[in-house]
Amino acid sequence: MAHQMHAYHMVDPSPWPLTGAAAALLMTSGLAMWFHHNSMLLMTLGLLIMLLTMFQWWRDVIREGTFQGHHTPPSTKKPTMWHNPIYHIKSILLHRIFLSFLPFKPSPYPKTKKMLTTYKDYTTKSIRGPPIKYSSTISLKSNNHLSSPQPNKNKPKPTIQALTITILLGLYFTALQAMEYYEAPFTIADGVYGSTFFVATGFHGLHVIIGSTFLIVCLLRQIKFHFTSTHHFGFEAAAWYWHFVDVVWLVPLRINLLMKL
């Protein structure tokens, strides 16, 4: 292209979408292999390729936007109008997925054998640990506003402190969830009960790990003075994602309490 008549950056050909898709395929296929054949080789390979793809792709985006100046004001303002509704729609869809588990709530006084086995086997011991759920909720919701301060190149310290606390609370949430999984008296193979619990909480836990990684990248960029008060879309996108993670957690929590998991 000799000359372009618009202010938007035309991205050069990149292999990272292809390698990312291949890594996702290997990870999902490897997860099935782990469940059925007790082999984590394929999933580990997919995870390594995914981590490499994330590193290389973030490197390219940072180079294009921070050092080469390709992220012009029109290209950074446009997503703020369109991505907010996208996050809201995604939040609503995930809410509906989680709420779809509610029809399987067992009746307090089941009258038929079918009702007994509709949701869970009553010989399965459920988790009785509200303090863990409440600690997880407090740690996640308390950092809801910490990820919101606008970056300032002249005063980076408040943003660095807020991001550090947010990341630590996110890692604390992940550690609590890992401890809960380790102590759980059932597995994902224990009927609908185990599947519902691990899908509802694990799917959200995956988003927490992704959001924490996103925030860690923003923290490193803030330490390197990549963000200014007018040029910080990467930070803003990470904050949107983290708020989305906070809101979605309330639904599995409510379902867990309603079903007395």
How many strand segments? 0
Q: At the third CATH level, what is the topology name of the largest domain?
A: Four Helix Bundle (Hemerythrin (Met), subunit A)
Helix content: 55-70%
Terminal-residue CA separation:
59 Å
Number of domains: 2
What is the name of the CATH superfamily of the largest domain?
Cytochrome c oxidase, subunit III, four-helix bundle
Tell me the Rg in angstroms: 22 Å
Shape: globular
The biggest beta sheet reads: none
Query: Which CATH first-tier class of the largest domain would you pick?
Result: Mainly Alpha
The chain-level structural class is mainly alpha
Low-confidence stretches: 106-123
Oligomeric grouping of the chains: single chain
- Count the DSSP helices: 8
- SSE string, helix = H, strand = E? HHHHHHHH
What is the level-2 CATH architecture name of the largest domain? Up-down Bundle
Strand content: under 5%
Mean pLDDT: 74
